[in-house]
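During the no-cost extension, the postdoctoral fellow (Dr. R.K.) reprocessed legacy sequence entries with the updated structure-token encoder. One reprocessed record is reproduced below for audit purposes.
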Amino acid sequence: QSSGECLGGLEERLVKAPPAAWGQALDAVEWKPNTRTVMLKNLPYSYVSSDLADFLDAVGLKDFCVAMHMPMAPRGGRASNRGFAFVKFKEPEFALQCYHRLHGRPIGGPQSPKIIQ
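Re-encoded structure tokens follow.
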């Protein structure tokens, strides 16, 4: 599968400039200055690590990642993720960029319209 197929064309709909509301959303979150690891919640259960890597690449964050962990669990006789993943970045500013770029964004395309938290 190409990254476009994995993402359901999401990379074509991404807006590069963060909305003004993101600053307000960050105010509601306790952000520690040295945070390098981000937990991404509400991921499609069908995603595997390569799908998450493709998504991070589409939003310009993959090159700044040093590690990803996506816990898997059996579902209906096949393995699927548990709906969340941890992504560790090289520097704290990239973790903050991840929050700004992804919090509240759709993921998974029209078949799985989920919003990243």
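Helices lie at 3-7, 10-13, 21-27, 49-58, 92-102. The longest strand covers residues 84-89. The remaining legacy entries will be reprocessed before the final report is submitted.
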